Amino acid sequence: MSESRNSERRPDPPGEVGDAPVNTTEAPVLEAPVTPPNTPTDKKVVRIGDRIFRSLATGSGVFVVTIIAAIGLFLLIRAIPALQANEANFLLSGKWETGDPDDLAFGIVDLAWITVASSIFALVLAMPVAGGIALFLTQYAPRVLARPFGYIVDLLAAVPSVIYGLWGALVLAPVIKPVAVWLNTNLGWIPVFGDGNVPADSGSNVFTAGIVLAVMILPIITGVAREVFARTPNAQIEGALALGATKWEVVRTTVWPFGRSGFVGGSMLGLGRALGETVALTVILSYTYEGPHYSIFDAGATFASRIALGSAEFNNNLTVGAYIAAGLVLFISTFAVNALARWIESSSGKGKE
Amino acid sequence: MRTDTADIERPAKTPAFQQLSPGRKAKNHIATTLFALAFVVAVIPLLWVLFTLVRRGLSPMLNADWWTHSFYGLLPNDFGGGIYHALVGTLEQTFVCALISVPLGVSVGIFLIEYGRNSRLARTTTFMVDILSGLPSIVAGLFIYALWITTFGLDRSGFAVSLSLVLLMLPVVVRVTETMLMIVPDELREASYALGVPKWKTIVKVVLPTSLSGILTGIILGLARVMGETAPLLILVGYSRAINFNLFDGPMASLPLTVYTARKTSTEAGEYRMWGAALTLVLLIMLINLIATLLSKLFAVKTK
Amino acid sequence: MAKRLDIENLNLYYNKFHAVQDVTLQVHARSVTAFIGPSGCGKSTVLRSLNRMHEVVPGSRVEGKVLLDGENVYAPGVDPVQVRRTIGMVFQKANPFPTMSIKDNVVAGLKLAGEKDKKKLDEITERSLRGANLWEEVKDRLNKPGGGLSGGQQQRLCIARATAVQPDVLLMDEPCSALDPISTLAIEDLIAELKKDYTIVIVTHNMQQAARVSDQTAFFNLPAVGEPGQLVEIGETGKIFSNPSQKATEDYISGRFG
């Protein structure tokens, strides 16, 4: 009978009341005219050790749920008075004047631009590279090398973001300055490459930040993409090979279509990470009071780096509330992007396997 | 090979295999080159970062004082001093984070796999853990600030940092526990039940030991990641150039915070210290990664 | 040691699915009872219900009685943990605990129940391994992991583990289905020896095996797809195989279906 059991089952506790009530009632059977009274199921034996252990495990689940819900509530409670005292339009203003609690004026539109611009630029750079690496590691690299090579890419994720920030601001920015200047002079007619609110050769702009962010999210996208590409059914690959397809044709006709949506999901995860990245951007981006020119040579602050920079003025609840309001917007956007990523990934698995 | 007469009329030398058109060949080569190149592109920044760190950070570290002294009393232009105060802070904050997040996260993992199944509470918990897993670290810092400092009215401290790290660490622990418990075959649980072993003992003595290696590795790797976090520190604790062992009182240094703060001292000596602290942090993280690898080998299920 | 089992009007369910209908049979002490029948007929489910392993599956339900020397294992107040300590089980796939040595595997049931006396544990290890015809093969490597043994040795290790807690009844769920013929023979010889001390119930797909090892045979069948499995007949093994009283049994045994 084992074949009829649900393969996803988990063994139940011995003697737990749990979800598997065991009826000890007599079945009404012809040969047994005298049916004994039904025995109540709640008189089951539960060992004290089991009860304690189960309560501990369940309790920690409840605890985590409660604590997170409570924190969410606290954040809202802190943000609302600041939003009420706000003299600017929170969604449409580019101002960020929070030093004086009696005269708050803050809006997120500039923060949103810098955040989105640097993250999208990072994504544009990282996606093709990550896809290439994932294909290389799963389909091309010799088996013995695939693991150490994969480990090397994962090492990129082990470097702390403050160090990426230093490297980006002090080492990378001077080196890529000519590229930035060239793009600005020759392709400046395309709006995003136009003049920013700081000179293109300053280095402390979205251009540098995006490249550094791309490096930081590379291992995330690669990790997910490697996993989905490696799951391509062997039968499909062999089928293509048997038709005389070249390696590239195999990849194009089987591996890529199979893993595409997983790859996009992984990229969304990377985007979520990029949106919330703080310290690298705090170090790289220079702060300017001039509004953005909607170019990748803009400087300024993202949601996250604005909060980090503002930590020095966390001295009254209204000011903090303003930052918390920005934090909530960041939180909601990363949550939405991550949820989208999970949805894409989970729906990609269903149709194809 | 067929040997009937039809073969005679064919050209004397047919190629044994069909030729690949040059276009297909070229495309295949281009694709192979591009994919290999992508890997190289990823390796460049890694080597570049590591090279920069070693070149600029190694010399402060070779000084014996580096491991035993703090930055206390140093003027912006003074060379010397050590990273001891920051090491103390990082290790204490990470340790306390582990002390809270590991038992909590492992129990949540056990709850989800062994007890909760598809109950509503389990689904809610999974949802909350999902929220945490995508949480930007600066927001984790704000969370704790809203709770610990504005609501409870407590001071900024190393312990507040530990709490924010718990928020970042918890989803890692829960996920890795879940994954590792999931791959323990049900046959082992059943074998244990069939011997008359209660469920909780089965979990503690059979299921957890089987998955110990994986859980331990995942946790340590997560700790290494959390150790480099800087953003919540900016909000939750002041920087101190002196040694402070007390997590609950006063400003406290840590390696990432030292790197960040030393950058503001724009002197040669300040930069010297900054790169030294940065290399120390990366070495510490690598050391912990190495320990994780060793432990996973040590605790792996043996068959010989 | 060695008790009788009486199954009375047993009905087994997985959620709404009625898996086994109305089974009544007796298992005699110190004998081997074989359950045979086509796949999906419920014979393993019945076996698992005897030591309350059936309820480990979420959504499962039991109606009826399983009496061990007259005492219902499903009576309220009976601890399933104790039932399982009295009625041991060997599974289809050998499942030694991978983190434990051979010795620790054998005495796992005792150790986990809190037995600490080292001398006693050593004695039981040797006795159980000898009882499982495994002692000579592993006595020099008792502290090596159990996962390093061959499939047949692992299965005998599992039998040693099940007998180490000194149960009254031993349930075996297709214990040889994953083994080669030589290991199968070793297990069958072992069953013949074990029945001197234990009441044994064995589920098998292999009719020759049932004929070789059992004293009485129960034939289960599935009347139709989607209907619950039923006990068709039970009787002395010789009689079931040579002169069954039901046509379904005869058809199955002569290989006309299943």
TrEMBL record, chain B:
List membrane-spanning regions: 30-54, 93-115, 127-148, 160-183, 203-224, 274-295
Q: Which CDD domains match?
A: TM_PBP2
Please list the residue ranges annotated as the ABC transmembrane type-1 domain: 87-296
State any GO CC term.
plasma membrane
| GO biological process annotation, one example | phosphate ion transmembrane transport
Could you say which protein family the record assigns here? Answer: Belongs to the binding-protein-dependent transport system permease family. CysTW subfamily.
Provide the function of this protein.
Part of the binding-protein-dependent transport system for phosphate; probably responsible for the translocation of the substrate across the membrane.
Which NCBIfam families does the UniProt record give? 3a0107s02c
Give the protein name, as stated in the record: Phosphate transport system permease protein PstA
Q: Which organism is it from?
A: Actinopolyspora biskrensis
Automatic annotation (TrEMBL), chain C:
Q: What does this protein do?
A: Part of the ABC transporter complex PstSACB involved in phosphate import. Responsible for energy coupling to the transport system.
Q: Tell me which UniProt keywords the record has, alphabetically.
A: ATP-binding, Cell membrane, Membrane, Nucleotide-binding, Phosphate transport, Translocase, Transport
Q: Which Pfam families match?
A: ABC_tran
Instruction: Provide one Gene Ontology cellular component.
Output: plasma membrane
The record gives the membrane topology as:
Peripheral membrane protein
Biological process GO terms, please? phosphate ion transmembrane transport
Q: Where is the ABC transporter domain?
A: 5-247
One GO MF annotation is: phosphate transmembrane transporter activity
Q: Which NCBIfam families match?
A: 3a0107s01c2 (TIGR00972)
What sections of the sequence does the record tag as coiled-coil? none
Its name, as the record gives it, is: Phosphate transport system ATP-binding protein
